[in-house]
Write a structure and sequence with these properties.
By secondary structure, this protein is mostly helical. It has seven helices and no strands. It has helices spanning 7-14, 27-48, 54-65, 67-77, 83-94, 106-124, 128-142. Helix 2 packs across helix 3 (54-65), helix 2 crosses helix 6 and helix 5 crosses helix 6. The longest helix is centred in the N-terminal third of the chain and has 22 residues, at 27-48.
Length: 146
Amino acid sequence: MEEGLSLLGQLKKEFACKEVDIREYSPLTLAYIGDSIYDVIIRTVVVERGNRATNELHKIASQYVRAGTQAAMADILQENLTGEEEAVYKRGRNAKSYTTAKNASVLEYRKATGLEALVGYLYLKDEMDRAIGLVKLGFEKLGLEI
């Protein structure tokens, strides 16, 4: 990776991605990328906590990436969001999705989608420090430790 470039910056450079106004992305597009980024955050922390069998890593990570946990995190983080972040979250939460989570209520799934949209938005704004900080704060406020 080129020194000084974030993962996003490196990807944009290497694949010659054109600049876009991310405010024009649909909330479900933001949630699509945000789901992966949230997953990378969780999996990275789980792996960094110790080398284990992959099925054990998956079991640990799964409890943090499920819709119920994400919904609880979204609820507890509301007072910490900027106006812009809250608007992105609400757009994601209110988006009409054609899928649902296996083990979550519709409301939990919508809140989780809002959180994923927010994480995706922050990633695409190249504000990973903020995305990671919010996820960490959410876990702290929920009393969860990875």
